[in-house]
Design goal:
There is one protein chain. About 45% of the residues lie in helices and about 20% in strands. With about 325 residues, the chain is of the alpha/beta class. The termini are far apart.
Length: about 325
């Protein structure tokens, strides 16, 4: 009889332990369902993220999105490239979460955002050297001065043939390939090279927000010239030739990781940005997680696609600033 009572007590004890364990498990499952995250801040994160803007920044963000989704398959990140201006048109009215840009936000864009109750904060992702390129089939141009660039691109210039720039060059029409007016790259070139004067447009000029369209147009025409971010040259250096640029009588310098980072590729070196909708950062766990992932991995992504990383402490400084937005 004693043995039977002992067995019954043991079975009851085991049953109680099982119930307690089940309760503990359900609490853990409930926490996961409510979106509790691991120390890395990614476990259980889900939902959409909308990104648009600069085609120059696009390769960096595409790289980051791909690697992020490997770890967070429940987050649906969409990245488009309508140009810096196109991105700001959407971000200033709250249509997207991040707005990529190859130039700083303009005062009128800031004003639009404020009117709509949108707070946009700038994050610097990498350095770029805006690259002036011709086809590998072009065997006569190796470098240009700032003044020669003005002759080629300014609407007020009478130069239409390569021989107008240099009598030793062919009497062939210059074909211009340029980012469109919504592009931050267009704005930057217009500011530092053309000094806000109108650029040539017409039958010999192709404008596109898609840098790959520009690449394809230039590579097949020995009389073509164009410009875009360094990553697009680096990806296509087998068919494109990047030109050295000289300023003020100095020796011509070509863009590359060293000359972009040390500033010797002047005046066409520049930072690349993304602008974060702070309301989205506060309210959407997936946006907050992705922004923090971006700042922890942007340097690696930038170098993988052909840009130049910032110093690591710059990323960490920005990360701490971003975290304060949620407070």
């Amino acid at each position: 009889m004693k043995n039977f009572k002992s067995l019954a007590l043991m079975l009851m004890f085991i049953l109680v332990l099982g119930v307690l364990a089940a309760c503990g498990g359900s609490e853990e499952e409930q926490a996961a369902e409510e979106g509790n995250t691991s120390e890395e801040g990614s476990e259980g994160v889900s939902g959409p993220i909308a990104i648009d803007g600069s085609s120059t920044v696009f390769p960096i963000m595409e790289n980051l999105t791909y690697t992020y989704n490997q770890e967070n398959p429940d987050v649906n990140v969409t990245v488009n490239a309508s140009g810096s201006g196109g991105g700001f048109k959407k971000s200033t009215v709250g249509e997207i979460d991040l707005s990529n840009a190859s130039r700083p936000i303009k005062e009128e864009e800031k004003a639009t955002a404020e009117e709509n109750g949108i707070q946009l904060e700038e994050l610097e992702l990498a350095y770029d050297g805006l690259s002036v390129v011709v086809s590998q089939q072009n065997d006569f141009v190796e470098e240009l001065t700032i003044e020669q660039l003005k002759q080629i691109f300014l609407e007020s210039s009478d130069a239409t043939k390569w021989s107008d720039i240099n009598p030793e060059w062919p009497e062939e029409e210059i074909k211009i390939f340029s980012p469109g007016h919504d592009s931050g790259t267009f704005d930057y070139f217009n500011e530092v090279i053309l000094e806000e004067e109108p650029m040539k447009e017409g039958s010999n000029t192709t404008l596109s927000e898609d840098d790959n369209v520009l690449v394809r147009g230039i590579e097949n025409d020995p009389n073509a010239i164009g410009f875009f971010g360094y990553a697009y040259y680096a990806e296509n250096e087998d068919v494109l030739k990047v030109l050295g640029i000289s300023e003020g009588g100095n020796e011509a310098v070509k863009p590359g990781p060293e000359t972009i980072q040390d500033g010797s590729y002047t005046p066409l070196s520049r930072p690349l940005f993304t602008y974060v909708n702070v309301n989205a950062y506060k309210e959407k766990a997936q946006v907050r997680d992705f922004v923090e992932y971006t700042l922890n991995n942007a340097g690696k992504a930038a170098e993988e696609v052909g840009y130049v990383a910032l110093p690591e402490d710059k990323y960490q400084e920005q990360l701490e600033t971003a975290k304060s937005w949620a407070e």
